[in-house]
Amino acid sequence: MKWLFYVIVFVYLFYRAVYGLKESNSLYVEPITYEEDLKYLPVGTRKTIACKVLNRNQKVEWLNNHGNVVKHENTNRVFSQTKHLMNSGRIVTEQVLTFTHAVVEDSGVYTCRTDKTSQEVELCVIDASDFVNTPKEIAVNQGRSYTLSCEARGQPEPRIVWNRNGEDIKDDGDDSSKYRLMEKYNRQGFESLLTITSLEADDHGIYTCTAIQENSKLSDCSLSKSWNITLIVNHAPVFLDGNDIELVYAKENQSVDLVCSASAFPKSSYRWFHYEDDHTLFEYSQKQIIDSPDTGEATLSIVADKSNYDRRFLCRATNELGNNSKTFTIVQMEKPDKPSEVNLVQSSDTELVLNISWFDIHFPIDGIEAQYMVVSGTNLKRKTPREAEWKRGKQSELVKVDDGEENIYSLQDLEEETEYWIRVRTKNDIGYSPWSSPISASTTKSDTTLLIVTMETVTESETETDEEKLDEETKDNNEGEVSSHNFEGTFYGLFFIGGIFVLGFICVFVMRMV
Ligand SMILES: *[C@@H]1O[C@H](CO)[C@@H](O)[C@H](O)[C@H]1NC(C)=O
Ligand SMILES: *[C@@H]1O[C@H](CO)[C@@H](O)[C@H](O)[C@H]1NC(C)=O
Ligand SMILES: *[C@@H]1O[C@H](CO)[C@@H](O)[C@H](O)[C@H]1NC(C)=O
Ligand SMILES: *[C@@H]1O[C@H](CO)[C@@H](O)[C@H](O)[C@H]1NC(C)=O
C-alpha cells in the first residue's frame, strides 16, 4: 500500500505540473470598447477592464501605465478588485481594473499579469477640443487683409490646421504669400491665426479649422474636430469666367437665354442693354428680364433673327461696392466643322480609341458619329473605299473618353482581330458636318486577360472567405477562451491521471510479484 501512496502523490504532482502550466496560459483581458462611435474614453467617465484567470490560487494583478501595481483600495480613483465567477463549472478569478473618473494622464498601456504570464491593453482618454471665441461667420470688405482666429481648448494639447475646399492652407513664408499663419498659446488653450492678405471676391467662402489631438505614446489615440468659419468678402460684381465677349449660338427664330451671373456681395442688381450703334445703348425694361435671386442671375430671353445676329448685348451688374459689365453676342448657328484629323490612340479587342481634331471649331458640337466597315477583299487593294461602299457600313455614336479638353473618343462593340475602315462626322442642332477622311485601324486579339482576371477574382474571394472564417474563429475563441482552456485542461488532466494510474497499478502489481 505504501507504493500505491507514492504513486498517487507522484501522479498528483505530475498533474499539477502539467495542468498548472496549461492554466497559466489562460489569462484573458477583455478588449477595450468605447461608447457609441468614439475611439476614446471621454475624461470624467467611468471605465472597468476585466482580466480573467482560471486558477483561483494564482495571484493576479494589474500594472498601471507607469508599471506600478494598482492597489485594491476602492477609495482610490483607480483601483483593482478581485471577483470569483463560475464558468463551465470552474471558478474563474476576475481582476477588475476600475477608473472612477478617467483623466487624460490615464492613457497608456496597462498590464494584467500572473506569475507565469501577462497581457497588455491600451487605454485612450481624451478631453475633446472645444472651440472658444471662434466665430462662425465674418463679413469683411474687399481690399483689406483680415485675420481669422481659431482657438481650441482640450487635452492632449490640440494643434490646429486650416483648409479650404479640401486643400490645406500653407504659409509659403515669403511676403507675396496669400496666407500667413501664426500660433499662440494662452490661458484658454491653443490659438491659430490665419491672415488672408488683400481680400478679393475669390477669397469668399468657408475656411475650416481642424483641431488635432494626439497622444505622443499611443499611435491609435487621436481625435480631430473641425469648425467652419464662413468668410463673407463684400465685393463689387465680378464675372468669374472673365469679361470676354460671350458668344451665344442660336438657330433662326429660336429663343435663346442670355444669362448674366456675377459674383458679388451684397448681391448685384442687373440692367440689360443692347447697342443701337457704337455709342447708344437701348435699355430693356425690367419686365423683360428674369431675375433669379437664389442664384444671383438675371436672364434676358431673345428670339434670334436677322435683326439681332451679331448685335452686342450688355449686362451691367451693380452693388454698393461698384459695377461691372459683360457683353454677349448672338451668333447664327451653322453645321459643325468637319474634323481635320483622326488618329488612332489605342486599340483593344472590342474597341478603338480615336483622337479627333479640328483646325478651328466655329460652332458647338453635340456629338460624333462614326461609320465603319471591315476591310475585305473588295476594298482591300484600293486606298480608300468608294462612297457607294460606305452604304454597307455600320453607323455608331462615339463615346467621349475623358472629360477634359482633349477630344478622345471610343468606337465600341467591334469584332476582335479585325481591320476596319473608319470615318467620322460631327453633329449639332443644325445638322452634320461632312465626313472626315477615312482611316484604317485594327482591333487586337482577345487575350487571356479576362481569364486571369476571373481566376484572380476567385482566389481573392476565397482568401477573403478564409480570412472571414479566421476572424470568426478568433472572435469565438476570444469569447469562449476561458471555457475552452478549461475543457482542454480538464481533458489533459484526466488523460494523464488515467494513464499514470494504469502505470501505477502495473508497478504495484510487479512489486507484489517480486
Ligand atoms: C464644414 O463645411 C464643409 C463644406 O461645406 C462641410 O462638408 C462640413 O461638414 C462642415 N463641417 C462642420 C463641422 O460644420
Ligand atoms: C423665321 O420666322 C419668320 C417670320 O415668322 C419666317 O419668315 C422665316 O421663314 C422663319 N425662318 C426659319 C428659318 O424658320
Ligand atoms: C461704374 O463704376 C465706375 C467706376 O468703376 C463709375 O465711374 C461709374 O459711374 C459706375 N457706373 C454706374 C452706372 O454705376
Ligand atoms: C490628339 O491630337 C492633338 C492634335 O493633333 C494633339 O495635340 C494631342 O496630343 C493628341 N492627343 C493624344 C492623346 O494623342
UniProtKB/TrEMBL annotation:
**Residue stretches of biased makeup (Acidic residues):** 459-474
- Annotated signal sequence is 1-20
**Looking at the record, which segments are called Disordered?**
458-482
In which domain of life is the source organism classified? Eukaryota
What are the GO BP annotations of this UniProt entry?
homophilic cell adhesion via plasma membrane adhesion molecules; synapse organization
Keyword Repeat attributed: yes
Xref: InterPro entries = FN3_dom, FN3_sf, Ig-like_dom, Ig-like_dom_sf, Ig-like_fold, Ig_I-set, Ig_sub, Ig_sub2
The record's listing under PROSITE patterns reads: FN3, IG_LIKE
Annotated keywords: Disulfide bond, Immunoglobulin domain, Membrane, Repeat, Signal, Transmembrane, Transmembrane helix
**Molecular function per GO:** axon guidance receptor activity
Q: Does the keyword rRNA-binding feature in the UniProt annotation?
A: no
The Fibronectin type-III domain extends over 338-447
Any stretches that span the bilayer, and where are they?
A: 491-511
Q: Which SUPFAM superfamilies match?
A: Fibronectin type III (SSF49265), Immunoglobulin (SSF48726)
The record's Gene Ontology cellular component field reads:
axon; extracellular region; neuronal cell body; plasma membrane
Q: Which Pfam families match?
A: fn3, I-set
Q: Which part of the chain is the Ig-like domain?
A: 31-122, 129-219, 237-329
Q: Any idea what this protein is called? A: Limbic system-associated membrane protein-like
- Please name the source species: Galleria mellonella (Greater wax moth)
Give the encoding gene's name: LOC113512461
